[in-house]
Design brief:
Largest sheet: none
Structural class: mainly alpha
Oligomer: single chain
Shape: extended
Helix content: 55-70%
Number of strands: 0
Radius of gyration: 21 Å
Amino acid sequence: MQHRSAEVRQDLVMLRARDALVSGADGAHQRHARLGKSMGTRLPKCSSPSFAQRVKEAVRAEIRDALLPLVGLTAALSDCIQGYDEKIEELGREKYGHTALLRQVKGVGPITALVLGPFGPDTDLRRYGLRLCERGGKNAKKRAAIAVARKLAVLLHRLWVSGEVYEPLRPALSAPMAAAA
């Protein structure tokens, strides 16, 4: 068994620290929503960067003094997360060049993002997940997400080992789809 070098472990700490901040920010968003809801205010759903401004506009005057310091803390967390994102992007570019092979796949960035969803581009992987969702059942979407994640892991490993160029729609699979349309 070969242990990771001290340098690689330091880089891994960067990823874990970012993850801890993201967990904290998610928890803060939920606490804001609960506190506002207890006073009859529903906070708007929005992205993290716009959260502070949107909450300032939506929160009632009676609870503004209580919530705004928490909103400021959440904004500071978002800024820290963005700083980590930039550092992780730089690490991928400078020290871990093989990540460029993996990032060919749409939805795979410095930190792996979702692939299956209504917003994704048309790819074999997405079609596979949607076919699994169509089967229905109580947990169809969860099973499909897990199956797509597994298939994505296999795909990324294959790209890493072989150095191949990623083809989102392979000709063999896309020809029958085009004929059906």
